[in-house]
Structures are given as C-alpha cells and as structure tokens.
Amino acid sequence: MEHILIIGGGAGGLELATQLGRRFGRKGKAKVTLVDKNRTHIWKPLLHEVATGSLDTSIDGVVYHAHAARHSYNFQLGEFCKLDAVAKRVTLAASFDSDGDQVLPERHISYDKLVLSIGSVSNDFGTEGVAEHCYFLDSHAQAERFHHALINNFLRINQKATDEELNIAIVGAGATGVELSAELYHVTDLLKSYGLPQMTAKQLKISLIEAGPKILPALPDRISLSARKELVRLGVKVRESVRVASANKDGFVTADGEAISADMMIWAAGVKAPDFIRQLGLFETTRNNQILVHPTLQAKGFDDIWVIGDCCACELPDGSFVPPRAQSAHQMASCVFRNISAVYKNEPQQPYLYKDHGSLVNLSRYSTVGSLMGNLTGDRMFIEGRIARFVYISLYRMHQIAIHGWPKAIMVILAEKLGKVVRPKMKLH
Ligand SMILES: Cc1cc2nc3c(=O)[nH]c(=O)nc-3n(C[C@H](O)[C@H](O)[C@H](O)COP(=O)(O)OP(=O)(O)OC[C@H]3O[C@@H](n4cnc5c(N)ncnc54)[C@H](O)[C@@H]3O)c2cc1C
User: Fold this and answer.
1) Residues enclosing ligand 1, CB less than 6 A?
2) Residues 116-175: pLDDT tens digits?
C-alpha cells in the first residue's frame, strides 16, 4: 500500500491529513501518516491569545493522537530533521523528557509521497542579543513561556501596590505585534475582576516598534491608519521608522543609539522557514529558506514532494510570492489534496491559484479592521466593527470545519461558547 507522509500538522498540514485520511486512509487505499513535534495542535493565529492567557491550550488544543484515530490517519510524534530523497526516507530526532530521559529514539520513516508543511519561525535577521533576550510567538510552548512571565509580572506589580509600570516592547508591527498589543490591554483590564486590582491598564506601557514607515506594512493604508488610531487610544506608543540594532537584558538599542528599556521584549518582525531546510542541501530555496515549488506545489526537482504553507515559496504571476498566511495554507492544503488524488487517478495535476480574500486584524474586543476582496469587481472593500469581527472569526471556523467536519465542529464551537460563560475569561496559572 502507498504511504503518504505529511510533516507538520499546522494550519495547512492538519487539514490535509484530515482530508487524505478520510479519502484514502479510511478505505485502505493508502496509508496516511502525520508527523508533528508537538502533541497538540493550536491554530497559529491564536498564539497571541495563548500568550496573554485569553486562550487555554490545555482546553482548546486538538490532541493529534485522538484526532488521527477519528480521521483514519496515523500520528507520529517527532521532530523531522533529515531527508533522504533518493531512499525516500525521513528521519525524526530522538526525543527526551524534562529529566533528560529518552522518550522516543531516532526513527526513520519511508514514504511514497511526502508533503512538507512545517511552517515558519521568527526571523531575527541576525540582530545581536535578540535570540537570548526576546520572546517569540512561533509555537505554543513559546507563547506559554511568555504567558507565565507575564502573569509573574502582574503578580509582582500587584503585590507592591505602587504605580510601578510594566514596560513591554514589541518589535514588528505586523498582524502579530498589533494584535498582541491590543490583547495585552484587554487582559490587563480584566485583572481587577480576578483579585489583582493594583495592576491596571494604566501601568501597562507598550512600545510597538516598526522599521517601516507604517504599522501593518503589508496592508492598505486605510487599515493601518485605523488600527494605529485604536492602538494609540489604548495607550500604545507606536514608533514607526525605528530600526532596532540590538537587544540586551534591559531592552532594545536602536540604530540611532537610543535605548528603549523594557521588562519584557517580544520579537515579531518577519518570518522565515527553519534554517535546517536550507541546510538539507536538497531544495532550491529563497533567502528566507522557503522551498521553491512548481505551480502544482511540487518542490522544484521532485515529483513526489509537495510543499504547503509558510515554508513554501510559490511565485505569483507578478514575481512576488504567496504571502505566509493561514488562508494560503488552507488553500494550498486543498490544492495538494486534489493533486495527490489526481495522481492516483492518472489525471493531470492542477496549478495552485492564490485567492486573496482580504486581510483582517483583530484588536481584541476593542475593534476589528480589514478589507475584503470583491469577487466580481476585484476591488478591496474596507470593513470594520462587527462585520469585520465576524469575517475574522470565520477564518478560524473554516479551519475547525476542515479538521472536524460540520457536526463535530458545531459541537466544538458550542462548547467554546459555553466555556466562555463558565470559565474565567483569562488563564491566570
Ligand atoms: C500571533 C500570530 C497571528 C497570526 N494571525 C494571522 C491572521 O490573522 N491571519 C492569517 O492569515 N495568518 C495569521 N498568522 C500566520 C499564520 O498563522 C500562518 O501563516 C499559518 O499558521 C501557516 O500555516 P502552516 O501550516 O504553514 O504552518 P503552522 O500552522 O505554523 O504549522 C506548522 C506545524 O509544523 C510543526 N513543525 C514545525 N517544525 C517541525 C519539525 N521539524 N518536525 C515536525 N513538526 C514540525 C509545528 O509544530 C506546527 O504544528 C498569524 C501568525 C501568528 C504567529
């Protein structure tokens, strides 16, 4: 029986594993295996909510083993580290528990068809001190680490009962930096209801630092301006055209030599595919380590390897690349599902057509702004408020439907709504 192996169960990979499991695994037409280095899946655009405690991964995460059993694919826990494309074999690194005892040994898995969907990591562009001193939001482990430090700072300041400030500096005013800033104000506002009245939003001082001339650089001016206005209203110090040259334990130093002091520093300035992809020495890659693909999403030079999501460099007719977004990963998963199905039917594969449905930025409960692409006119339509919030949430709902199917997704959504009533609004542990 043919073996389809998917590496990375994120926004794209988990949707693809679900579709392939249902189509081929259930009927015994092919064996489908998903590998991920984590045990649970959290949709990455929600990581800023994990970081602030608005979302509890122990409740909201999807457990891969259980999901695999339900959707007729196999799950292997492990970190992909090597690929032998001639022998058609990947290697998963040995894993260890927190005491250093080995949990799983190094393993090799053979495949007939391979899909790489390992996402991206933050790009610090080699900036001195960033790796040592900053938090990143690349994984839920990192978001949890930030969350623990944040709660400790809340407790520390609350205990002192003075008007000491909590200074947080965020580098990169893309969607991650902007959404995180607003979410931090939201959770700080909740603290008084949970017995921490001395730590108020007035004491929270956020600096949002952007090297470019405007925040949300990839989005139209109208959205950037609207989001900026809202952030400033909340109290965020928005600093455009400021280039950070280094980080140290006390904060950032700009290219002009200015010191920006901070108790907590977050780096959210751009993404790249993991460095080891380039080090494999197999693929044609961009300078961000993304793998160059043909329009069918097959890696250049390989008929049996497809690449989807943030680690994929798919060129658009104008020479730019498909942006690293959840909607791209979702569309690419559907395209590769159709193409693998076509290969089994001896039909030609179809090219991936990127459909930009627009972009939305959610400023926590304060505001949502964005644009939608008009299907007929091709024009951008600016939206904000309730409609924008509804469309923003719809993207996550589509992911839930893709990985659970309609009936279970409806139950999960209802359980979430119920949870909002019976559970605290933020995680304080
Ligand atoms: C805070 C935040 C907010 C965002 N907001 C938005 C938004 O509003 N809209 C939007 O469109 N996009 C948003 N994005 C971007 C979006 O999350 C990504 O574009 C999307 O998740 C990419 O999907 P993917 O499947 O390529 O990778 P991911 O979803 O990152 O999944 C990669 C998977 O691979 C696994 N993995 C990685 N390396 C290995 C390895 N070596 N071995 C085994 N497994 C591995 C990881 O554990 C993970 O499960 C946001 C991102 C962040 C961080």
Assistant:
1) 7-13, 35-38, 44-45, 47-48, 79-80, 117-119, 137, 175-176, 179, 309-310, 324-327, 329
2) 999 999 999 999 999 999 999 999 999 999 999 999 999 999 999 888 999 999 999 999
How many A from CA of 142 to the centre of ligand 1?
13
How confident is the model over 325-329, as a mean pLDDT?
96
How far away, in angstroms, is 226 Cα from ligand 1 center?
26
In a domain, 306, yes or no: yes
How far away, in angstroms, is 255 Cα from ligand 1 center? Answer: 30
**What is the rounded CA–CA span in Å between residue 326 and residue 338?**
19
Domain, as residue range, for 180: 130-267
Looking from the CA of 15 toward its CB, the CA atoms found within 13 Å total 27
Interval 50-76: pLDDT, tens: 999 998 888 889 999 999 999 999 999
Residue of 164 and 376 predicted with greater confidence: 164
Do 244 and 205 lie in one domain? The reply is: yes
Q: What is the pLDDT of residue 376?
A: 55
- Comparison of pLDDT for 374 and 319, the residue scoring more: 319
Distance from the alpha carbon of residue 11 to the mean position of ligand 1, in angstroms: 6
Of 382, 395, 356, 381, the closest CA to residue 227 belongs to 382
Q: Is 265 exposed, middle or buried (0-12, 13-18, 19+ CB in 10 A)?
A: buried
Enter the tokens of residue 301: 């030079």
Q: Give domain status of residue 125, yes or no.
A: no
236 shares a domain with 256: yes
Answer positive or negative: Cα dihedral of 197, 134, 173, 384. Answer: negative
Please name the residue whose Cα sits nearest to atom 48 of ligand 1: 10
Does the predicted model carry a pTM greater than 0.70?
Answer: yes
State the Cα–Cα distance between residues 167 and 187, nearest whole angstrom: 15
Same domain, 307 and 244: no
